[in-house]
Amino acid sequence: MTNKILFIANWKMFGDLNSVKSIESVINLTKKKNYKNAKIIYCPPYTLLNSFVIKTRKTNLDVGAQNCHYEINTGPYTGSISSNMIKKLGVKYIIIGHSENRSDGETNDQINKKIHSAISNNLNVIFCIGENLFEKKNKKTNNVLKKQIDLGLRKIKKIDKIILAYEPVWSIGTGKVLTNKELTKQVVIIKKIIKKKFKNQEAKIIYGGSVNNQNINNLKQIKEINGFLIGGASQNSKKFIDIIRKTIN
Ligand code: PGA
Questions:
Q1: Which residues are catalytic?
Q2: How confident is the model over 1-22, as pLDDT tens digits?
């Protein structure tokens, strides 16, 4: 997997065929020499995966899905899409365990099965973890993160295809972000949990939750993180480019 700074655009339930053209300016940016160190991964809704794969062919950009069913190939699951179907489109990444799906009833066990299915299809996984406000207020953050990692990554042996996305639930879409000091502390704790569980293997860790073109100047100072998972601000190419520019320059 790449050692570049990751900018993962999570478009959630936004975008239609007209939005495909809007990423051209981002593609053009990455052609410039000083952006060689940036890895941009677009995660549009399922309906746009194919168009995004075609649009980003022969570029440095990659495409990711936002979820999958835990069944590896095919099955009687109306409305669902498997990691194998996603892989066959030419998609390389997949977000699993996003809090918006966890709060919809997705369990740690299902997340674990989805991660196994994605890896067996040779996809890179963006595995989301994070505490909610109640857990934070009750000082349960570290326990929650450890449990999510232990159960989500159960029976996973190698983590070279897994990117951990630390996204405090209370930070998503709210404009609230931890201070750099608090965030660094949390990321170091996650790294320790991973190192212990995976016998010194190191995982890439990205941060997500209200990343925008204002707070990026601050967030980019944190050396312990390998990039960002960006929701709202990634749907607007101007704002997204601003975030990438400010991080790289
Ligand atoms: P946000 O979303 O940047 O809009 O807070 C991030 C995410 O949910 O991945």
A1: 98, 167
A2: 678 999 999 999 999 999 999 9
